[in-house]
Each structure stands twice: as structure tokens, then as C-alpha cells.
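Predict both folds.
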Amino acid sequence: MNLPQSTHRLFDEPKDVTLITIDPDGSPHAAMVWVGRDGDDLLIGVEEKHRKTRNLRRDPRVTLVLQDDRTSPRGLTQYLVVRGTAKLERDPQRYKELMDRLSKKYLGRDEFPFWSEQVSANATVVRVVADRVTGEGPWAAR
């Protein structure tokens, strides 16, 4: 599905996003991540050593949650929930480009400050394709 236009600004601003993956025992695993947008797809940089990456390799279902700084017409804090499917691509160059872009957005720095050869060897880009969008805001069907 396409992300509603009303959600685009949330991913173009430096908002922390909670990524929820599924552990082997079926329980949720939550991690804070930086997220970029490529059209309607959401991009996240991860390393192979992380639990979230192992979870995604085993089960690509994800949920992303982020809180907006705006209030809905109902007087509630707006938030967005995106359920989707992740595709992983192990590509150090694309990871570096993504993380440089996200470092500019989140830190105001032109380059990702945590880049190293060790990171390069494990760099993976996660592309999330939205299956369902809910929450509190103009993107939520009521």
C-alpha cells in the first residue's frame, strides 16, 4: 500500500521511531531506530549482529510506531502505527549513504559518525513496505 501523504512529513522530520520485530518465542522486541523515506517505502540501517536483524531475517513482519508533536482534532496526541513487511539488503555502500543522510537529519552532521570497517562488514539496509497504517491523526481511517 502507499503511505498516506499526511504521513510523509513524519518521516522527513527527525523523529525517533520504535521498530517492533518478533522474537523466536513469538514475543515482541522493540528498538529505537532512525528512519528515512524512499517514496512510500521506509528505510532503516541495521547491522547483522543486532537482535532486530536476526528477527527480521527469520520473520519479516514489522511494526513501526512514532509519536507526533501535533494534537488531533479530538485533542489527543497524534501517533502513527505502520505494519509492514521488511526486505533486507546487505550493501555497505547503500547503508553508508542512508546513514549519512539520516545523520544529517537527526544529528545535523554530514557523515554518519559511527562508521567503521567493522560496521561496514555488517551493514544492512531494511526496506519496509507498508501493509497497514493506523494510529491517531489524518492518516487513520475513522
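Second protein follows, with its predicted C-alpha cells after the sequence.
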Amino acid sequence: MITPNQHLVLQSEKAQKYKKLLDNAGLKGNLTIYKNKQRRWQYTTAGDANSSYLINSVQKELTAGLIMRAISENKFSLDDKVAKFYPNVPNAQNISVLNLLEMTSGLDPTGPMGDAPYNNDDANAQKMIQDTHYNEQNFGKGDYQDLDYILLSHILEKVNGQSYETLFNDMYVYPLKLKHTDFVWADQQKLKEIDFLFNGQNVDMNAIHGLLGAGSVAMSNDDLYKTSLDLLNGKLLSEQNKDIIYAPGNNALHYRGGLYTKNNHYESNGNGYGYCNFLRISKDGKNAVVLQSADSSHYGDLSNSANKIYTDLFGK
């Protein structure tokens, strides 16, 4: 449970410094600092402390958690080839689940990730595969593509016989009692209940359905932190499985499982439909900086601010 501890406030000098930094960076949302699993300081410039945001690519960390759980249940392995699930993917006989997790598959999209209008996830998978191209030069090398995690999400649905949404809710939302988390295709009433912060941009729900597992969920800072903490501290995954899924990737960016491995912490970033998101979290999950904004026009400045604050408090 994340408890705001009144004795753990920042020194006013530091608080003023961070506020100025974030104001200059154009924050339109929330920055929250967690230390020893407690919310230590929060700065809100739009919405309120519980506002939820489209988390975009930060969702990939959670998709990786679902993948690792399925692997621990012997539903498939990291070495299994994509051909086992979707033989019509180009070069499917050589691309492994691990390649997808590390974005080293060499696969590129040549069209939308699904149908418009959206029919169902199976139809979206076939549409995406039909428009997928294999680039041999990128096989085994890091090439950031949403497609890899969307394909992983379709594999999850196939091996479990359940929707990604059901799997996500069963692993995260219900057991962790997340009150400010839902899929952005939920109805207006549900989005109101989770305090979704609308930013005035029109979100294309067909495209959001296409981004299955890679950018379709809204979460508050606290919900995102709680979920990340429990993925890293042995509650949702065993210590061994956590170390496997979030190990430094075999690529120049050290990317695997939705997280970039840095010296002493992990990083994750999201950007889409005017929302941007930055997670900086220690490897044991105890310390973190979460920044979410409903205006992504200052993406670079906000990313730098999250980095500066995390480094200032917890080191590189």
C-alpha cells in the first residue's frame, strides 16, 4: 500500500527547485516522488493527484509481466519461435519470443496495426501480419517497434484463450485494487471514475485497439508505481523470473521487457495522443520518479526533468 507520509516531505528549497524546473519544462499533469515505497512528494499542475493518463509505451513493462507469468505457467518459452503461434509472420521460423521482448525481431509495420473500424483482436492480428515486413539488417539488433509488443499481446491471447484486457485485469487491476486504471476504450462513465484527464485531442479508438499491449491503458501515477513496484519486488513475479524478464537486453539500448536498464535503475517512456509519460525506478522498486503530462509538446524537457530529479535524489 502506498501511503503518503507527512514526515517525508522534501526540504522547501528542493521543492522550489523542482517546481521551477517542472514549470519551465511545461508540465501539465503530475510528478510524484516515491522513496522507500512511500509517496514522498507530488507536484500537480493539471487535474488532481489521482488523475490518470494514457500511459502509451510504458504499458510494455506490464505486457512483459504478463508474458513472464505465462512462461512461468509453461504456456511457452522465451526461445519459442513466432511460427509456433503465427506461422504467416515473415521469418517467423527464426524470430523468438525473446527477440520480440528485446525489439530485435527485424519486423517493421507497413500499414496500420489493425482494422478500421475495429472488429476483434484476431482480425487485427491478421491485418497487422499481412502488413508486416521483415528487414534482415535489423534482425538481432535493437529497432524500436510497437509491433513487437502488439504481436506478444496477440500471442498472450492465443495461448491463454482470453482477451488481453481480461489477463491484464486479472494480474494487475483486481489483485492490486487499482482504482485509477482502465483501458481508454472504456465508456465515458468508466473513464470519469478513474479520473481520466482529457487533453482535448481526439483519440482514434481503432488505432488504440491496434496498439494492444503497447499503448491502450490509462493509469494514475500511484497505480503505475504500485504495479511497477510489485513487478520488481517479487509479489507478482518470482525474483528469478523478474531478473529474466527485466535483464539488460542484448542490444545497444539495454532494452528488454519494456524497460531500459541503467546503472542502478530502470527507465521507461511513453508518448502519444498528446500524453507523455516517464518512469524512473530503482531495480528493487523502492524508489521512483513518475511524471505524466497531458501535453507532450515539451517531451524532451519533461524527460530531462524526470532524469534530473531522479539523479538528484537517488543517483545515476
